[in-house]
Design goal:
The complex is a heterodimer.
Chain A: H1 11-24, H2 26-47, H3 49-52, E1 54-57, E2 60-63, H4 64-95, H5 98-102, H6 109-137, H7 149-170, H8 178-191, H9 206-211, H10 213-226, H11 233-259
Antiparallel strand pairs in A: 1-2
Helix pairs in contact in A: 1-6, 2-4, 2-6, 4-6, 4-7, 4-10, 6-7, 6-11, 7-10, 7-11, 10-11
Chain B: E1 5-14, E2 17-27, E3 32-36, H1 43-50, E4 58-63, E5 66-67, H2 72-76, E6 79-82, H3 94-104, H4 109-122, H5 138-149, E7 156-160, H6 168-183, E8 187-192, H7 195-201, E9 204-209, E10 212-217, H8 219-226, E11 230-235, H9 239-247, E12 251-254, E13 258-263, H10 267-277, E14 282-286, H11 289-297
Parallel strand pairs in B: 3-8, 3-9, 6-7, 7-8
Antiparallel strand pairs in B: 1-2, 1-4, 4-5, 9-10, 11-13, 11-14, 12-13
The chains are: A mainly alpha, B alpha/beta.
């Protein structure tokens, strides 16, 4: 049963707190999304594209760098949101006792957790915006359609923030994040149509890729950058929405079990 | 006037084990109330229920006349909590800690900034306002936690071992500040291990152990009731002394190599003890709350 008295807009105060901390080191926070796409584009563009020629995707014949550019936004959203609600939130919860301090104010645990998830999505949006700028200048994104990458990053951020928070609710120690990263995030990073089209995989593996939230996020970023797609965007959006809600609920339950004694 | 805190048969079990086993007490407005007990007695569990962190297993708990189960949010917005552990936000500066915390209470930014300035001044932290909290000494960090607990102008201040780990100078400074706050009419509930602290600050206190209240009263009352008013510690007691104590029904604790007598203010009795039994080392002193505490909770080590 859900007790709705635990939910209010007050969660924005915790979000604000994270923003205050972020602003202190915003320059550092912007360096990664600024240079990450450049490194990938350079590495694959200079070193790899000669081996590959063009990639057929959604009826288009794309250069390899044009193919992976939108996926870079999707993976950055994933890493940003997932790292924030795993390592970031775990440190605040366990080592810094920040949540303990917050819990003696009119905030509920639910509001704190929601704020952490929404914050992780916000951070993902920040990274996506910087990357969008870089990729736009390089000509890998079509405008104005490409602006839809911003709400897409928010949605993807919520999904990966929620699943990260769920792991934070259940891991005994911070080292244990290695497991979800190695068994869940890394395979997803490699097999979600990020570096090669899922249609290139043997047909029996393809359905596995369709279960990955990163596949759907990559589909959306590619759709809004290039106007091409494999799966209808509505399905991907619904999938990510459902994924976010399910894992947010699981995260809230896990955190309540963990912290409220 | 209704009591600020009203606790009735409060119960808390962890996996079937009772940490708080049916305690009842009340705290009146303006009172400085102490919750004393050895480690694991249930002090922190009790106050965690009081500030709405931990849901009670049974009994009733009312703060400001409101039930904590249904009115946790209005209750929490009128309470200030000073945790035992350092829960300051290490990602923020000293001043930001107060500003951000004020926002959790939805205090407007301008009002929060003004009040934060006053509090930093009151706790002698103004010169540190831009420091990182990690750079603060133990005493300064504790003062900042206190300042933070007051940012919402609470009607009830909850202190969980406010001076544990502080040097004597810092401890006395915290005591001074707490006495000043009490003088303003603030209701304060405190847990502590330091009997001197409890005697000095508390109007009334309870000693709890194994989740139950053992005694309840003002420090002087409790001393008079449970440790006479004077104590005599006699090292290396002989059989004659033990017989004398027994024959005269003198309250005492026998520690084997030491006998502590709790005796009323009677010159004759004191003289007798001094003349007949003080061949070796003998200490005459006032009884303290520590005597009461050790008598009530025993001398065995905890944990």
């Amino acid at each position: 049963m859900i007790d709705w008295s635990f939910f209010s807009w007050r969660f924005l105060r915790v979000w604000e707190r994270n923003l205050v901390v972020y602003q202190k080191i915003w320059k550092v926070n912007f360096i990664t999304p600024l240079f990450e796409p450049l490194f990938y584009i350079m590495a694959f563009g200079l070193g790899f594209s000669g081996l590959i020629g063009t990639v057929g995707y959604g009826g288009l014949a794309l250069s390899y760098t044009a193919f992976i550019a939108p996926a870079l936004v999707a993976t950055a959203v994933m890493w940003n949101a997932f790292f924030e609600t795993t390592y970031g939130s775990f440190v605040r919860m366990y080592y810094q006792k920040t949540f303990d301090g917050m819990l003696s104010t009119p905030l509920s645990l639910e509001e704190i957790i929601i704020a952490e998830i929404v914050w992780s999505a916000t951070k993902a949006v920040g990274a996506a915006a910087v990357m969008l700028l870089v990729l736009g200048v390089l000509g890998y994104v079509r405008f104005p359609l490409g602006l839809l990458l911003i709400p897409t990053a928010l949605l993807g951020g919520l999904a990966f923030g929620a699943v990260g928070m769920f792991f934070t609710g259940i891991v005994p120690t911070i080292d244990m994040f290695n497991l979800p990263i190695f068994l869940f995030v890394t395979p997803m990073f490699l097999f979600s149509g990020t570096f090669f089209p899922v249609s290139n995989l043997p047909s029996w593996v393809q359905p596995v890729a369709l279960v990955f939230p990163l596949y759907h996020l990559t589909e959306l970023t590619r759709c809004f950058s290039l106007g091409a797609r494999e799966t209808p965007p509505v399905l991907s959006i619904l999938y990510l929405l459902l994924f976010s809600v399910i894992f947010a609920v699981l995260a809230l339950r896990a955190m309540r079990r963990r912290l409220i004694k | 006037m209704p009591n600020v805190i009203e606790v009735q048969d409060l119960l808390k079990r962890f996996n079937g084990v009772a940490a708080v086993n049916g305690i009842s007490f009340s705290v009146a407005k303006g009172e400085f109330f102490g919750l004393l007990g050895p480690n694991g007695a249930g002090k922190t569990t009790t106050i965690r229920m009081l500030y709405g962190f931990s849901p009670p297993t049974g009994g009733s708990l009312k703060v400001f006349g409101l039930d904590i189960k249904t009115h946790w949010r209005p209750i929490k917005s009128r309470i200030g909590v000073c945790h035992q552990e350092n829960t300051l936000d290490p990602d923020l500066t000293v001043e930001q800690n107060l500003h951000v915390y004020a926002r959790y209470f939805s205090i407007p930014k301008k009002e929060a900034a003004e009040h934060a300035r006053e509090l930093l001044d009151f706790f002698a932290l103004t010169h540190k306002k831009d420091s990182k909290v990690m750079e603060l000494s133990g005493g300064m960090a504790r003062r900042l936690i206190l300042a933070r607990a007051l940012i919402n102008r609470p009607d009830l201040l909850i202190l969980d071992e406010p001076t544990t780990g502080l040097d004597p100078q810092s401890r006395h400074q915290v005591w001074d500040k707490l006495a000043t706050l009490k003088a303003t009419g603030l209701t304060i509930l405190m847990t502590t291990h330091y009997m001197e602290e409890a005697s000095r600050l508390c109007d009334r206190l309870v000693i709890i152990d194994h989740g139950r209240i053992l005694v309840d009263g003002s420090p002087t009352e409790l001393i008079a009731r449970h440790a006479a008013s004077n104590a005599v510690e006699i090292e290396g007691p002989d059989q004659a002394l033990r017989d004398y104590v027994k024959a005269n029904h003198i309250e005492h604790d026998d520690l084997g190599d030491r006998l502590i007598l709790y005796v009323p203010e009677e010159v004759e009795l004191h003289n007798t003890i001094r003349d007949r039994f003080c061949s070796e080392k003998c200490i005459f002193r006032n009884s303290t709350l520590e005597d009461v505490f050790l008598r009530m909770t025993g001398r065995e080590l905890r944990e």
